Amino acid sequence: MIDWDVAVNTGARLVRPGPQVDLAEAREAVAQLRELSVTAQGHVREFTGMHSLEPAGPAVIVDRPGWIKANVDGFRVVLEPLLDRMSSGRLGSTAGSITTAVGSRITGVQLGAVLAYLAGRVLGQYELFLPPDPDGRAPTGRLTLVAPNIVHAERELNVDTRDFRMWVCLHEETHRTQFTSTTWLRDYVQEQMREFLLASDVDAAAFLDRLRAAGEAVAEAVRGGEANLIDAIQSPVQSEILDRITAVMTLAEGHGDYVMDAVGPEVVPSVAEIRRKFQRRREGGNRLDKIIRQLLGLDLKMKQYEEGAAFVRTVVGEVGMADFNRVWESRETLPTMQEIRNPQEWIDRVVRAPELPPADADDVPPQAPPAE
């Protein structure tokens, strides 16, 4: 259903080149990013009280085409088995006809074009899903930093380069810590993604309806409305699943934003200036850029940063870091989107909920009163 090679080639062909740097400057940036990614591990661990269950080496430093290839590899790990199942299973001949009509190469071109746009914006990420390691020694995920984008951003913002690079490393290392200090979170996210895909009700009529909805979303975005392609193409069941995915990603992104700022000026001396300038950059862009961001759901991601960080600030301020960390205990302690927007509800449900009696409490005979 997706020609992955076409996606990689299209993305690499369409992506804009990075900033002009000489060889010495490029090597210095790569070396410093690796060093700071390791230093950030200690700061995140000390500030959050969270400890990785996996060995964590330095970040992998890539250029824009390298980021595209890494993401296509991750998509293949998650999506390929599901797409094969969907095309050969319950969707039957309808899926075959749709695939034939649209074409896996066209889908690959579309994916590559989206990744080419994103590859010029992403500073770093924790890659949850990597191709299997034949030797079984590599970690499950990988922290990746996109050096050209970091250099471009720090130049554009005119900020201290070491401070900015440490600031970015703190955010991305927080994501690595979130997923490596738990035994269940990565599986939970993958499970929700799998359910989201398998909940697709694509048949010929529904497919045409989704195409029309996507076209209307584009038209509304151009007119200045708030529509995006994600909302336009999902089914009602998928909408419910997406709420759960959105909740956990809002928590993760907000936690990363909170940590990168709250670690403090002793680690990033110019943190207040960097945040102020970076926030303006997030909100900027020309008209076309804003339309593309809206259609791809990137504006929704910006809202996730804000809502998630506000949730973390409120909960930590109310009950402290140790009790906040109960969000990472299990899927049951994750906040819902309603709780993220109303943190007191999560505090009341998880932190201040009365302890349940033991399951066999009714079977324990009452104690006799003490003899006089």
Automatic annotation (TrEMBL):
GO terms for molecular function: metallopeptidase activity. InterPro entries: CHP03883_F420-assoc, Zinicin_2, Zinicin_2_N. It comes from the Bacteria. It holds the Pfam family Zincin_2. Keywords: Hydrolase, Metalloprotease, Protease. Residues 353-372 are annotated as: Disordered. This is Zinc-dependent metalloprotease. The lineage of its organism: Bacteria, Bacillati, Actinomycetota, Actinomycetes, Streptosporangiales.
